[in-house]
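From the pipeline queue, job 12 of 40. The input is one protein chain; the requested action is below.

Action: predict structure.
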Amino acid sequence: MNLVVKIARILIGLVFAFSGFVKAIDPIGSSYKFTDYFKAMGIPWMEPFALILSFLMCAAEFIAGICMIINMKPKFFLWLIVGFMAIFTPLTFWLAKNNLVQDCGCFGDFLKMDNWETFYKNVVIDVFVVFLIFFRKYLTTKINQTVQWLTVGTVVTLVFAFEIYNYNHLPIIDFRAYKEGTNISEAMKLPAGAKQDIYESIIYYKKDGVEKGFPIDKLPDSTWVWVRTDNKLIQEGDKPKIHDFTISTLENDQILGVPAGQDVTDQVLSDANYSFLLIAYKLGNADTSALIEAGKIADFAKENKYNFYCLTASSKAEIEFVKTITDAKYNFFSTDETTLKTIIRSNPGLTLIRKGTVIKHWHYNDFPSIEELQKKYLYK
């Protein structure tokens, strides 16, 4: 029995350590998922706490997992895992039943799971957890208490330091669709043979005051009068890695030779010149000193005939305010807020592309110098 308990303990530890690690790589992304949960649960007032909860949950999962693997305070962390599963299992069942959130975020951006897959995964974990509860007397260790707590303290320190680093820079491993080396245009296409969405069409007709729905292959005779057609998605097809990337000119602006409010995505992505994209999903919350620093890069780009665009979901009033306080002379364009948050975990962040391919991302704490740009990234 000792061996079986050991295997169960290590398996549970691996799941929690891996889940915590891939989320700790990207604590901002995990905070966005908390926000989605709060909206789905009708408690938007919790959104200001999303980042704090992200840090705590990612760290707690990782610490519990590592300590179960190395057998440090196993009974203590078993009960912590029991608490996690007591919350996660019914929550994921509720989400699966109502389909309010598309992806649970259990493994960050590393692995996407739908709601039912997440629930069944939790049920399997519950089986192992219940087993360990019944046989917890075998969760023993010969290591003394002081060493155990010192080890736990070391793990706690390291995981929080790891999260803080990823928060103040960019995730050390990028699992997102816009990672460096990605050609955005190609990632927006479905490969040949991809599964398409399958819809069921029910056509409603009326006769003698009676309305009735018919499948498309069993339509009634001409004495019936058409009322409406309902198309229901019965099987979702494949989706391209990137399916929501658009760049539009602002209302009342005419930039790049196109009218206001028009899509210029293809024009930007097909350009053979280097293009800097200043990503600021909400200018009002963006670091002002970083925006000023970005202005220097924009001036450099203009002098050397490179492109420089600011992509934002901010209002025209916010844009005008930022122009005033930073003396910004570059052009602003409109892009969906969720898309901008996905491209880069920094507000603002800087992305360099050429012919639609992502060359480099920079967090605002790591904006490059002009010399660095010339030596490492801008080749004629």
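Job complete. Residues 198-235 form one domain.
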